[in-house]
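Q: Mind making up any chain with structure tokens?
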Amino acid sequence: MDRTRPEGQRATGQRPELDADELRAAIAAVEARPSGSSDLPPLAPEAHEAATAALRLLRYRPRSEHELRGRLAEKEHRAEAIDEAIDRIRVWGLIDDAEFAAEWVRGRRRRRGRARGALERELRDKGVAEAHIADAVADIDDSDERLQATELVRARLSRRPAGAASGAARAGERRRLVSFLARRGYPTGLAMAVVDAELAAHASS
């Protein structure tokens, strides 16, 4: 989503990572324009209202097209106005589900440690097309999943005293850590293998 390109011009090449400040600056620039321009006709009155509402929503964070359509429908805009508003926002370069999916995966893995399966489910809930979801998670393989799960468990264990624990305490810790990984979408088998390995290493340190 190239926020410096003229209206109607498509970007090519690799997509840059979304930036919240950049998005807000782009929205401010759009809001300062007249509703029509040399290459775009003015929006119909209700479509202009819908587009304005969509820009307010995008000011908080990027959203999928499905999310925007749903929120505008909740505000009781007619379908025709929503279609016109979404089309204009797409031309402005402020909505792109492929880029949205890629940034969602980057951010959720970095900040929340989400597993591939959890990310896929979240994007489906946001109405993102399967092709965009597949592209967004394509670089996450089994070794990446195991490495991230290991880092999550190590971070948890680093806040606990090292050394052997009683059998009951160790079993309880194991259950909590496996549940911790499961909530982030890691398969049970992987979660148990990672937790067992890290508990053993922690006990011997």
